[in-house]
Amino acid sequence: MSGTILLGIDVESASEASRGYAKYGAELFHGLGVPVTFYLTGRTLAKYPGEFAALAADDLIDLQCHTYDHLLLKTVFMQLPPGVKGHDDNPYYLQRGATLQQIEEDLARCVPLFEDVLGRRPRGLTGPWGYYRGLQDRPDILEIVYAHGFRHLRTFARDERDCQPVPLAWQPFFYAPQGFPDALELLVQDYQDDFYWEMFARPGPGERYEDHLREVARRVADEDLVWSVASHDHGCDTREGFARKGRWLREFVSYAKDIGIRFMSAEAYYEEAVAARPTA
User: Fold this and answer.
1) In the CATH scheme, what architecture does the domain 4-276 have?
2) Prediction pTM value
3) How far from the centroid of its chain's Cα atoms is residue 49's Cα?
4) How far is CA 259 from CA 2, 214, 224, 262, in A?
5) Among residues 217, 220, 215, which one has the least CA distance to residue 201?
6) Domain residue ranges of the chain, discontinuous segments joined by +
7) pLDDT tens, N- to C-terminus, the chain (280 residues)
């Protein structure tokens, strides 16, 4: 084995971009022959039930949850690096998270929708925006998430400044210290997408996201790491729009496969991780 990539797409916009991703994204990943996890908001699934129901039995596409309303589970307070400005040119940005009641209501609305449309309840959840430490410091939120049947999470997606990139040294872990030994955090390492790389890395002329991804993939292969990669449905409403996003995805996936990295869905990796846990 020489590294593992968990490729996850936030299909979140409940717009034609989401519908486009159901079509063009499925075509791309089938062409590349790699599994992928689509994290759907409930609004997206409710708006395009037929498009995603058609993918429910797809062997390569794993459909999981991204809350109903793209609801932040935790507050995000970004202390932006030099040269990156937030709203009103402030060197920080604050986005409040939801209350426990709002989280309960959102998931109680979302989970049955998955069951109605896709014929099963989701076990995977991506926390919108992502948070430093995931839910390690919020066992109260974990309790709600767990009660709704979620067992593999993608909520740890920011560094100690609530920014990006997330170091690869931070690898998937179980929430055993919080009392949920079969709840697995997958993280999102590095940058959450190409536009976040542009925002936080501030690349110079001629620098390409594809080249950055190759460097990270090489480290994943050399050190046999797990890399949870994120992208979004933004701008994918037409074949031409998706082609712009698909260009770096295609190059990156092809390179990673060539150097021997395996690709897994979130669900498949969870099953493997649970089976590999040491027995008491």
Assistant:
1) Alpha-Beta Barrel (3.20)
2) 0.96
3) 21
4) 8, 10, 12, 9
5) 215
6) 4-276
7) 599 999 999 999 999 999 999 999 999 999 999 999 999 999 999 999 999 999 999 999 999 999 999 999 999 999 988 878 766 778 899 999 999 999 999 999 999 999 999 999 999 999 999 999 999 999 999 999 999 999 999 999 999 999 999 999 999 999 999 999 999 999 999 999 999 999 999 999 999 999 999 999 999 999 999 999 999 999 898 889 898 888 999 999 999 999 999 999 999 999 999 999 877 6
